[in-house]
Amino acid sequence: MSESTSFSETETSPSSSSPIRVCVVGAAGRMGQEVLRAVGAASDLKIVSAIDREHVGVSLRELGGPRCPDLPVTEKLGAALDATPTDVIVDFTHPSSAAQHALSAIKRGVAPVIGTTGMQDADLRQIREQCEAQATPALYAPNFAIGAVLMIKFAAMAARWLPDVEIIELHHEKKADAPSGTAMLTAQRIHDARTGTPARKPQATLKAEGALGATVQGIPVHSVRLPGLVAHQEVLFGGQDETLTIRHDSLHRSSFMGGVVLAVRKVRSLDGLQIGLDKILFADQA
Ligand code: NAD
To answer: Does the beta carbon of 125 lie inside 6 Å of ligand 1?
Structure first.
């Protein structure tokens, strides 16, 4: 595996001598605690601060285990970035605050790795503009799991030949946004890759509103929310007497961490705001 696609959480990046200084935003959340564990275990990364509006004052070791520094969770991102030199923030919070966190970081020359999904297009536009104005890069990746990135890539490949497609995404019941960021990005990539026009125009009389799903970039998207699920998606293609199903399952939140660690290592080498971990994984094919 080349250096650019290395996933090891403990591997030291050969290109950097001093560790990359990381602020974890949303550190007390489900994803944030995984990020603390993963970044804490990587010898070339150093957690220098952690932000959350819950669990303020609690040691990071309590949240992320013994490989985290014994620092307390604090509440204000700007104050933490002003107090401690930082290279990268990793944000897994809520769509209502993630854009502000990113703008606050970029203003200070700190590169955001944004995992929070459900942000508005206007948020991303503002982040893109601020990245350009401050010459600071950022990455927004709605899914950091390698299998999910491949699912989206394979779906875009298939869409060139099979334009009829629907997406079913399935997540835990506490997820704040629907459709998922992964489904939105999948629809975008399929839309960009699709050369033919879908043959099928659903003619069904709707007996219940929403029965045919939402429409994103002309593609029906169905969201399932149930306890027990983590993050799952099927992309279903239909052709002449054939179907193709591409499915990805994240079975635990640790599935996202290889991609998060890779993004932290690489974000500062990006140009402006990039969307999707594929921009790092497949940088050599751009
Ligand atoms: P969560 O609710 O468990 O955690 C969010 C944390 O952020 C909480 O501790 C909360 O207190 C904190 N928070 C929220 N707003 C804040 C603010 N303004 N300031 C400080 N802290 C704040 O949620 P989660 O399951 O960890 O998911 C977080 C986000 O990550 C969601 O948007 C989810 O869709 C996304 N997600 C992305 C990926 C990916 O691969 N990109 C994978 C899973 C989840």
So the answer is: no
